[in-house]
Amino acid sequence: MKPITKIKAFGAEKLNNLEYAYFATEFAALLVETTAENLHVEQNLVDTYGSNTDLLKDMTKQSRVSDETAQIANIDKQTDDLVVYIFEALRSSMKSPIATRRTAATELYNALKPYEGSQNLPQRQEVQAVEGMLVDLQKENLATHAATLGMNDVVEALTENASQYRATLEGRSVKQQKSLGSAKEIRKLLDGLYDYITTVAFAYSVVEPTEELDNFIKTTNRLINDARKAYNLRMGHTKPVDDEKDPVVEDPTQKPQETPAITAVYQKEGGDPENPHRIGRDEQTMVEYQGFTLKGQDGTLEHVIGLVNDQDYIEWIKAATITNVTETSCEFTMVPDLTEGQYKVRIETYDGGSPLVVEYPEPITLW
Fold first, then answer.
1. For the segment 178-209, what is each residue's pLDDT rounded down to a tens digit?
2. Residues near 116 by Cβ (< 8 Å), separated by ≥ 6?
3. Residue 275 gets which letter from DSSP?
4. Alpha-carbon distance 171 to 19, whole Å?
5. Mean per-residue pLDDT for 295-324?
6. Which of 121, 248, 272, 304 is the least buried, fewest Cβ under 10 Å from its Cβ?
7. Of 253, 286, 321, which residue constitutes the final position of a domain?
8. Percentage with pLDDT > 90 across the chain
9. pLDDT value at position 65?
10. Where does a domain end: 208, 234, 253?
11. What is the dihedral of CA 96, 100, 106, 111, to 10 degrees?
């Protein structure tokens, strides 16, 4: 039985929505290319995977600048301006020649000093700080100072802004949470469809293998490798993906495929043990090989074993002299009238239907 290529474990849960959507887009295209019929699944499964992939893509393509974001930026600027104005006005009034204004400004500044610089805080922290400042401004003595300095309208504007600021931030947070929840549900459905389709395709690739299923499995494994690389790049992992090769199950009853080669050439009897490649003319010669069987183009052993001289001329061994042919060896009678010298032993076999040319790596010497 031929080796079986398996589909790799995915680990899709590690991918963010952008990475997942990219994989799903490529996989959806592969499903369409392979066709539901060749995958042995219902067409609606392929269609459902594609339509839900489009939904996920739309979510990831949506601008991160939502309607609330622009509104928040505007409210944030107004709030910043009001906070800055209050402290600048207090510092200015602390130098007032009018004692009541100077005293009111000094006491109010000292009470609100912990909130100075609130405009530089992150949005949620800024809202929290401004609301704290407004609570202090409602205290009787501080409210009186603010009235003395004519700041009631500024405090009122800041109160309104802080309320809008918080409400808008919360509204955006709720929408983002709903969007994430929707994406999670879509991914869950896509995971289930992926698992079902790949399981069916793999099962049929074992019992009814086809070129389309083989290509589907290999391409799916490549897409998984690409997704892993994208994840590793985002996470800063510099090591290459360990298992880029497709997982293959070999038939344990089959011998490993051997590389075609001539492994030995020597005189069968009466040879020189110290010079095994020195072979006498008209002597029985042994040839050992691996990874192929002897077979001529016409099904005979004509033009299968040849001796090649230094001019690349081939002297073919007559088929009638080739005997005791096995899967790993044969013997032939060395040409009796061939010129002494060195030759390369070449085998040209049509094992498997295609020509295969193998040469012994060391020359032999005729004498």
1. 555 578 889 999 999 999 999 999 999 999 99
2. 87
3. B
4. 27
5. 91
6. 248
7. 253
8. 65
9. 47
10. 253
11. -150
The verdict on 126 and 157 lying in the same domain is yes
Helix (H, G, I), strand (E, B) or coil at 304: coil
CA–CA dist 68, 304 (Å, integer): 81
Considering its fold, how many domains does the chain have in total?
2
What CATH number does the domain containing 279 carry? 2.70.50.70
DSSP 3-state of 347: strand
Domain interval for residue 139: 1-253
81-133: pLDDT as tens digits: 999 999 999 999 999 999 999 999 999 999 999 999 999 998 889 989 999 99
C-alpha 112/C-alpha 261 separation (Å) is 91
Closest to 208 measured CA to CA, from 38, 22, 12 = 38
pTM above 0.90, yes or no: no
Q: Do 177 and 297 fall into the same domain?
A: no
DSSP 3-state of 329: strand
User: In a 3-state reduction of DSSP, which class is residue 117?
Assistant: coil
Question: How much is the pLDDT for 252?
Answer: 74
| Whether residue 141 sits in one domain with residue 114 | yes
* Residue 332 pLDDT > 80: yes
Asked whether residue 196 falls in the same domain as residue 288, the answer is no
Regarding whether 1 and 119 lie in a shared domain, the answer is yes
Residues 63, 47: one domain? yes
Residues of the chain by 3-state class (helix, strand, coil), percent to 5: 55, 15, 30
Q: Confirm if 300 and 273 have CB atoms less than 8 A apart.
A: no
CB 292 within 8 A of CB 354: no
Tokens of 166: 């918080």
CA angle 107, 112, 114 (to 5 degrees): 130
